[in-house]
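Board work, copied verbatim: NAD(P)H-dependent oxidoreductase
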Amino acid sequence: MNVLWVFAHPEPRSLNGALRDHGTATLRRHGHRVRHSDLYAMRWNPVAGPADVAHDPREPLRLGPATEHARATGALAPDIRAEHAKLDWADTLVLQFPLWWHGMPAILKGWFDRVFVQGYAFGVHDTDGRPRRYGDGGLTGHRALVVTTAGARATGLGPRGVHGDAEDVLFPLLHGTLFYSGMDVLPPLVITGADRAGPAEHARAAARLDQRLTTLPTADPIPYRPERGGGYDDDLVLRPDLAPGRTDLAVHRT
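↓ predict structure ↓
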């Protein structure tokens, strides 16, 4: 595999940093190729705006069409084009970050805002002009694995935990970003109790990561329902005969 490892943690000596280094070594030991986007080390600019597209300030900025046009004409900011080159090279994306306030750090959100632009990761259409999304899209053919740490205990991020089930907490990223853009999304690896982790917990976390990385090429993705799989009506609402009476997020799985 060609793996792009996107890392969003400010401290390389953290548990996250140790897991990133360990995981990279595991992948290479198994013959895979790895490139990195270490967002804090890169001092990544997370703010999407007119500088991304060489915008004429005399005109109103419509960022979606502007980024699509800039990409088509080679006018996108160089740092965005560099990330596109990495994604084009990769067939697998590993996203690693600490879970902050039930979401990803702002620097990683800004990576998505600036890199997953219209006409590249979304806003693409088939030959009939229909939008390609939710199981199809600009990044179809890629696999994605989310690796995240949380200070919470595992029980608190379980199905009845006070924080919400971990996959529900990550649903906007897993389903609304990665699956939306066409990727095959693997179940996330969530390392809990990170704030209190000692050497034994570090070793267990590294072993769990090894297991996920060794099966990365063949593991079954989360079975999300594709938009065009016949499960949704014209208003993009799940058919009433599928998961009848339920409204939880798991209804979007087959």
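The radius of gyration is 19 Å.
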